[in-house]
Design a protein that fits this description.
- The chain is mainly alpha-helical.
- The chain has helices at 9-24, 36-44, 60-70; strands spanning 29-32, 54-57.
- It has a two-stranded parallel sheet with strand order 1-2.
- Helix 2 links the parallel strand 1 (29-32) and strand 2.
- The longest helix has 16 residues, at 9-24.
- It starts with 8 loop residues before the first helix and ends with a helix.
Length: 71
């Protein structure tokens, strides 16, 4: 996500759809290293971390380490 400079309403709807679909298939979604505007948009839209479903992080390496430790 660090290469995404901006996220509009259409992007948020698409992102929500993908997260819902992935979660429905048992896949946890990690949004990592969001730029400031997309992070504000995601937060303003009400995206919140849900254990086992969605994580929003600045440190992808730490997140991957935790996921691999669980496996």
């Amino acid at each position: 996500f660090e290469d995404v400079p901006a996220l509009d309403a259409t992007g948020l709807v698409a992102l929500e759809s993908v997260i819902t679909r992935f979660n429905g298939n048992g896949v946890k979604v990690v949004l990592a290293k969001l730029n400031p505007q997309p992070l504000r948009a995601v937060r303003k839209a009400g995206f919140t971390e849900v254990p086992g479903k969605l994580e929003i992080t600045d440190d992808l390496g730490d997140t991957l380490d935790r996921v691999l430790d669980l496996g």
